[in-house]
Amino acid sequence: MRSWIVLAMILLALGSSGCIELAALITGTSLDQNGGSPPNDNGNPPDDGTTPDVPQVTLVVSNSSPSANEEVALTCRSVFGSAPATSFAFQPTGVLIDISTSAGTAVFLPSESDAGTAFSFTCTGTNQAGPSDPSPAVTVIPVTGGL
Known about the structure:
Elements: H1 2-27, E1 57-61, E2 72-78, E3 87-91, E4 96-100, E5 105-108, E6 119-127, E7 130-131, E8 138-140
Antiparallel strand pairs: 1-2, 2-5, 3-6, 4-5, 6-7, 6-8
């Protein structure tokens, strides 16, 4: 409790511009020379706020070594701190079922004949600014029998 009081007193003493400078110091961002907004996530100066940056995405799978007929959930999400995506796409799509472009989810259901075959998946996210770069690839290799 005492540390919160001390912090509040320091922030009050710094005033609004000092608080902004302190926040910039803590977050690792900086103001431009004219006191404007910090650069956006890709290092470019911010725009007028009407056009967001393209998202950055990551892909997570529920199991990278499934048995035959065991569903593997693929989930594509915007990386924390990046611009949000409004729709998602998976690559490749030919082996996926139950693709939801709005939720960023898909299901892979390997068959017995897929055992030992490596399946590499990526995803992209899109918003008003355009599509993201593909996520890092995630490999799923189905196994024979149980784990």
